[in-house]
Amino acid sequence: MSKVANRIKQTATLVRSKIQRRSKPTLSFPLRSLSNVKYRPTRGFLELKGRKKTRTLTVATVKTFAQTLRMMSQAKILVEDDEIMTKREAYYVSKNWDDARFDEQHESDTVIDDIEALFEVNREQLGFIPEEKGGEIAGKLVVIDRDLDTGKKLRIDCTRFGSGAYSIPSSVEHLKFETKAKFVLAIETAGMFQRLVKHGYWRKANCILVSMGGVPTRACRRFIRRLADEMKLPVYAFVDCDPYGMFNIYRTLKVGSGNAAHINRYFCAPNAKFLGVTPQDIVDYKLPTHPLKEVDIKRAKDALKNDPFVQHYKPWQDAIRQLLDMGVRAEQQAFAVHDLNYVIEHYLPDKLAASKKFLP
Amino acid sequence: MTKVKKTRAKSKTKAAKKAVKKVRRASKKTKTRTKKTGSRAVKKARRASKKTKPRTKKKGSRAAKRGAKEVVEETPGKEQPGHSTAEDMALRQREISVAEFFMKNRHLLGFDNPRKALLTTIKEGVDNSLDACEEAGVLPEVRIIIAPTKEENRFQVTIEDNGPGILKKQIPKIFAKLLYGSKFHRLKMSRGQQGIGISAAGMYGQLTTGKPIAITSKLSRNLPAHHYKLEIDAKKNEPRIIVDETVKWPVQRGTKVEIELEAKFQKGRQSVEEYLEQTAIANPHVSLRFVTPDGETKVYKRVSKQLPEQTREIKPHPYGVELGVLIKMLHDTNSRTLQSFLHSDFSRVSSRVAKIICEKAKVSERSRPPRIARQEADHLHKAINQTRIMNPPTDCLSPIGDELILAGLKKQIKADFFTAVTRPPAVYRGNPFQIEAGLAYGGSLKADGLARMLRYANRVPLLYQQSACAITRSVINTSWRNYALQQSAGALPTGPLVILVHMASVWVPFTSESKEAIAHYPEIIREIRLALQDCGRKLAKFVRRRRKAVESERKKAFIQKYIPHIAIALREMLELSDRQEKTMVRQLTDVLERSRS
Prior knowledge:
- Helices cover 42% and strands 18% of the residues of chain A.
- Chain A is of the alpha/beta class.
- Chain B is built from 17 helices and 16 strands.
């Protein structure tokens, strides 16, 4: 029996023995919020402070309690049978549970996240896999996978996808890599990624291009992390100049998310650096801008006030203040104002020449 | 009404003479009171007549008087055009009869508009019928018919009872003379107080349709019924007989009054129907039949055969007597000494107490009452209020009783919870009174919106001027939130609630003669509040208990729904047997139910 299945059984035994002693059973979870994480630069990611919330079985909690236990049982079955299930599928499976079924998927997602936190493992280890796609790769990288039928080694050369790209699978632990690239460039938008692929930028700069498509998925983060660790590659992020690009996309890539801090140690790339677009770039490159939206301002102020990562890095605080003072934001595709390939010919080479000046 | 002639004083000596006359008139007035009538209205009418007499001129009397003076003082001998001399004025100064006064001021009696006139007419008729039946010891059966006439805004109202009937010779005065009756001059609990109502209704009919009021009365089975058609001679305030005949009326005994009047028939709030419904609630011994103009018959059945206890007449209590009344009583008494006057003309004044009062007032207890001067009377009045006197007797009150209030409420209102309380008697300004309250809650009553109030004075529903009434004030000032109800500041409570309050008294202090709202005496407000709080506590108990039951039922269902799933999950994870699973369900239920409260 696997380690995870054992831990599930232990917890269940604890609950049962409490009931047999006629006392209210409890389950305690680490509190999942920014207020319960801290940034440790030596380890390089957001980790839990250790505050826990205890769910005691009462009249008010009996429904969630029952649902959590049933979902735990489901996880145990998955682990024992070496089966997988998406969050959406878990939601549909719960429809068999009569009164304990979930009415909306976000309810079952929350319970799955709770269980994940309870055992301090990533949900993939419990058999729950994410719905989302992992991101795309192009450039000087060979991924070594296995053929699902024969189990034979499968070499995937990411330079040979033409105008397409290699898709990161939802689980990346079994992959191996071969590369001679110098760095990894993680790009926010698919549009910018395609431009760089089309003009063979990876060949020119000798790098690996990753399209994150917004906030990077766990698989994408894990993939980049393994590239960084095992291939000793630096990681540069190229995102929009707005609070979302900085603190939702880049921060999550570098130090993990506040909401799933229990698994951040696997799912982040602590050596990532911020290539751009920086507020100073807007000035230097005379980029066309849009005014900051109210949500942007709110997010920026919130980051200044609550984000342990931002609180640790003075340069980031300065960058935010500069952005707030300017009151504008700029997208990474705004360089098109000068010339369609201005990014490739001028911006990226300029920036890469001074990679020491990247924001941390 | 008094017939003393009044003339404007022309000189100081005359004025002095007039003052003397006034005093005499006052005494006469009070004597006339020994007839029938309602006090407040009478007083007001008299006051008004005094005022209006000189006003029969162009302007207010004072102005006229000043004008006359100016003429005399500033330009003697010369008369300015347009000004009148005192002699001219005297020609126009004449007496006003009460009837004339009320004809002009009919709103004072509740005839402001056609809708209210209809209600007031029926109210006066029904109140009289019920009073008469109860005094004769008959269980009242009253029929009310509102029949349409050829003209749109005219209705023929008939009120018929099974009461003792009225002596033939009394009929014209009772029905066609204002301020004639039996109830005014006694301190006794009854619906009517003033002796204006029914004759005013007749007069209103006469005024708006020109038709006389018709009365049929029968004293016993073997006697013939008398039928009268009467008009009021407004100038003289005397009945004018139009028809006087003997008719056949196939009933045992009773009285039937028919009035044709200009009116408007309406349903809903402040309607005839509401009045009858509320009457039925507070008078469960009464049987009412009501025929609407559409020919629909509504029956309010009797639910109790128990007549209200007959009330005793009492003498006034010294605390409630005003100086003027005291002077008048001193003048009118048959007692020969002051001490015996105090002892025999008031309640709760023993010889000993009478002597103490006299000593305090420094007036000899042996002085003859009519000889007491005004100054001494004043001392006497003050002495009375400084002396401790026992509260008036309270056996003169006949409350409805909590059981009958409950019966009445249950008959007319569909609710889940009823409670009622009768407070012990209390006293305001020397008048004994007693407060009763009842609540009906839940059931088919409307859950949103303000509580409905049923106000009663001597068993008569009060439909108008709710906001001016002491009852309303007390209800608002009671903090219903303590009793598990909602209430906004300065408003009635909200919820499916009916609040009934009844004030029984030998003299209900109305704020006006149309008897619509009770005056704000602190003693009365206090008693109402105590009664409401008593009811409120019982209500709160009920509401809380019900809420708790609902809540625990809900919780129980909730627990039973989800506990099996906990057991299923544990069975799956720990590979338990079915028996172990069942044990788990039992243990879990145990754990949760214990923690429920």
